[in-house]
Structures are given as structure tokens and as C-alpha cells.
Design brief:
Elements: H1 17-38, H2 51-60, E1 63-65, H3 72-82, E2 89-92, H4 99-111, E3 116-119, H5 152-162, E4 167-170, E5 173-174, H6 180-193, E6 198-203, H7 208-213, H8 221-237, E7 241-244, E8 249-253, E9 268-270, H9 275-279
Parallel strand pairs: 2-3, 3-4, 4-6, 5-6, 6-9
Antiparallel strand pairs: 1-2, 7-8
Helix pairs in contact: 1-2, 1-3, 6-8
């Protein structure tokens, strides 16, 4: 099975990746439709999927779907009336530090025709265990403190050099961790060098101790995220840029090169499980 880890910290690859993905996809859409019809939050899926599909998700690495679950009629219609769903999906990169194995993984995913490859974003990981992680039933984080966490932008730059067509995304970059102008430049530079293959996946963040280690604003992280997203769009589209907000401000600056993707720059996908995340 794709993504199974071996004892020497490499990854094995197998062509049944398609059948696993499609099997999960069918169950995922059915469960989301049931959640929507019951009036529950459509973005919280883990507690509603059978255990066997959670195992597939964790072993194959998370699959990211590009679909708007806020449009209930479309989801219900596609999932039940037509009986088929056509959407694009991709894989989060495994936690490997061997360049050859990462290259093989990325090239295999591209060869199979998948839409995208994603890099997670954790700069440090607190040693003390948490029970506040929002995507597991018991609140425990899914990685150990000793797991290698490569920088997301550096990792995607490496993967970009090994591939030519597949989209490259962050899943998700925690916006308050870094200076917004520097982040906008990093995304823009990567988009230029990959000829428009970048997806800007963003999140607010949740781990207070990680924020503290990075001297990042935890209490006002939602406001910072909203303003940083505005800054991205301004810098990517304006000839002369300025912004005046509560968390950051600048004026009279030029920002080049602009992203290759038009008309509005790099697509921004907001990750999260709350209604605020949906509104963003």
C-alpha cells in the first residue's frame, strides 16, 4: 500500500493507490452528505467515518479534496443522484528526510496522475503531550516529538525540482508563525519558479506552546490570519502596496515578481473545522 512505512524510514509504493483512494472517496462523500443533512458541521469528518477508513487515511497519508461543502445541494446531488463524484485529490508528503525517497514518492504520485502534493507545517513540536488537537477523538496529536519536520517551503522547493506538472501546496502553513511579507514572497517565488503550480493552504493554528516558542501571537491569531491574507492579496496584485491593520502595516513598497497565476494570484485554500474557517 502506498505510504506504508518500513523499518529503515523509507516508503514503499504500490499501484493500488487508486483503488484505495476511490474507496475512501466514496465513503467520505456519503458521510459528508449524512452530516450535512443532519445539520452538523460539514468539515468535521473524523468522528463520522468508519475506523477502517481512518486507518487508510493515516497509512496512505491524508488525501486533500477540492470541494465546497457549503453548497449542500451540489454535494447531495453529486453524491446520491448521479452516484459518482469527480474531484481532484492528492497526498501529503510523508515525514522522511531522505531526498531519494521523497523524490520517488513525489514522482510516483505525479506519474499516477494525481492533482497535488502537500507539505505540513510544524517548525517545532512541544515535548509535553497535548489533548487539544481538534482532529482526533482523544485530542492527541498524531506525530511524536521526535518525528522529523522539514520546513514546508524548503520541502516543496525540493519536490518542485523533482516534478514538472503536479500542484504543490502547504497543508497548512500557520500564518501567524511568520512575517506576512516574507511569506508572501516565499509563495510568490515558488509560484514563479514552478510556472504556477503553487496552492497556498493556510490555517490559524491551535498549539499554544508552539506559538510561544516562536514568539507568535496566539490570542490574536485569528485577526492576524485575516490581515495576513489581505496582505498576500495586496502584494500579489498591486503595483505599489500599502496596508494598515491592527497587527501589521506598511506603505509605499514594491513587491516583485508577482505570482505567475492569474488573475488574482496564487489560490488560497483555508484549512480548519470551524465556521470561521469556512467564512475565510
Amino acid at each position: 500500500m502506498v505510504g506504508d512505512r518500513t523499518s529503515d524510514n523509507t516508503a514503499s509504493y504500490d499501484c493500488n493507490i487508486r483503488s484505495v483512494a476511490h474507496k475512501f472517496l466514496r465513503q467520505y462523500v456519503r458521510s459528508q452528505a449524512q452530516i450535512l443533512s443532519s445539520g452538523k458541521d460539514p468539515l468535521v469528518w473524523k468522528s463520522h467515518c468508519p475506523l477502517k477508513y481512518r486507518v487508510i487515511w493515516e497509512r496512505v497519508y491524508p488525501i486533500t479534496f477540492n470541494i465546497d461543502f457549503r453548497n449542500r445541494s451540489i454535494l447531495m446531488g453529486i453524491g446520491f443522484y448521479l452516484g459518482k463524484v469527480y474531484m481532484e485529490y492528492g497526498f501529503v508528503l510523508p515525514k522522511l528526510t531522505d531526498g531519494e525517497s521523497l523524490s520517488k514518492f513525489a514522482k510516483s504520485v505525479e506519474e499516477f496522475g494525481f492533482h497535488s502534493i502537500w507539505a505540513a507545517d510544524h517548525i517545532v513540536q512541544p515535548v509535553e503531550e497535548t489533548n487539544l488537537y481538534p482532529y482526533t477523538d482523544d485530542g492527541r496529536f498524531t506525530a511524536s516529538a521526535e518525528d522529523p519536520q522539514l520546513d514546508a517551503f524548503t520541502l516543496l522547493s525540493f519536490v518542485a525540482s523533482q516534478t514538472s506538472r503536479i500542484k504543490l501546496g502547504t497543508s497548512v502553513v500557520i500564518l501567524p508563525y511568520r512575517n506576512p511579507v516574507v511569506q508572501a514572497k516565499m509563495f510568490s517565488s515558488l509560484d514563479v519558479l514552478t510556472n504556477g503550480r503553487v496552492i497556498c493552504g493556510v490555517g490559524v493554528g491551535w498549539w499554544k506552546e508552539e506559538f510561544e516558542a516562536l514568539d507568535a501571537p496566539f490570542i490574536n491569531r485569528g485577526l492576524a490570519t485575516d490581515e495576513y491574507l489581505q496582505i498576500f492579496r495586496i502584494l500579489w496584485n498591486s503595483e505599489i502596496s500599502e496596508f494598515k491593520g491592527e497587527t501589521y502595516q506598511f506603505s509605499g513598497i514594491a513587491f516583485f515578481p508577482k505570482p505567475v497565476q492569474k488573475p488574482d494570484g496564487i489560490p488560497i485554500w483555508v484549512g480548519g473545522h470551524t465556521r470561521r474557517a469556512v467564512r475565510r
